[in-house]
Amino acid sequence: MPPSSTRPTDNLDDDDYPAYTMGRAAEMLSTTPAFLRALGENRLIIPLRSEGGHRRYSRYQLRIAARARELVDQGTKIEDACRIVILEDQLEEAQRINEELRAARTR
Q1: Taking 70 as the threshold, does the pLDDT of residue 78 lie above it?
Q2: Which terminus of the chain is more exposed, N or C, with fewer CB under 10 A?
Q3: Residue partners of 56: CB distance under 8 A and separation at least 6
Q4: CA separation for the pair 105, 54 (Å, rounded)
Q5: Long-range contacts of range 28-32, CB-CB < 8 Å, 24 or more positions apart?
Q6: DSSP secondary-structure letter at 42?
Q7: Amino acid 17: pLDDT
Q8: What is the pTM assigned to this prediction?
Q9: Predicted confidence (pLDDT) per residue in 86-97, tens digit
């Protein structure tokens, strides 16, 4: 098999592959489709769309949605929870980049 070809099972390990329907995603998070739509409206997660226009979510998006759900369950407004999760994600990325730069300097 040429290296550029993909196997159907390759997507099973891909955190960004949109494998979950809205109903399945809501079930996995013990929430409602309305909650997932609200996350999209607040631009926390933007699901991909199937050819038929149905929302599809990746494992990465579900982890982000789960974090927002934790905050909302603790009493945080959904808009604020989305902003907090976005800032947490940005901070984590900045810390990763800083660590890479520090490691590059010591080489």
Answers
A1: yes
A2: C
A3: 18, 19, 20, 21, 22, 47, 48, 49, 50
A4: 47
A5: 28/62, 29/62, 29/65, 29/66, 29/69, 31/65, 31/69
A6: T
A7: 87
A8: 0.79
A9: 999 999 999 999
- Which of the 8 DSSP states describes residue 75? T
DSSP type of residue 53: S
CATH topology of domain 17-105: Multidrug-efflux Transporter Regulator; Chain: A; Domain 2 (1.10.1660)
- Would you state the pLDDT for residue 1? 47
> What amino acid occupies position 51?
E
Burial of 47 (0-12, 13-18, 19+ CB in 10 A): buried
Q: Is 30 left (phi over 0), alpha (psi -120 to 50) or beta?
A: left
- HSE-CB at 37 with a 13 A cutoff on CA atoms is 5
pLDDT tens readout for residues 22-55: 999 999 999 999 999 999 999 999 999 988 989 9
Render pLDDT for 95-107 as a digit per residue (tens, 0 to 9). 999 999 999 998 8
Listed by start position, the domains of the chain span 17-105
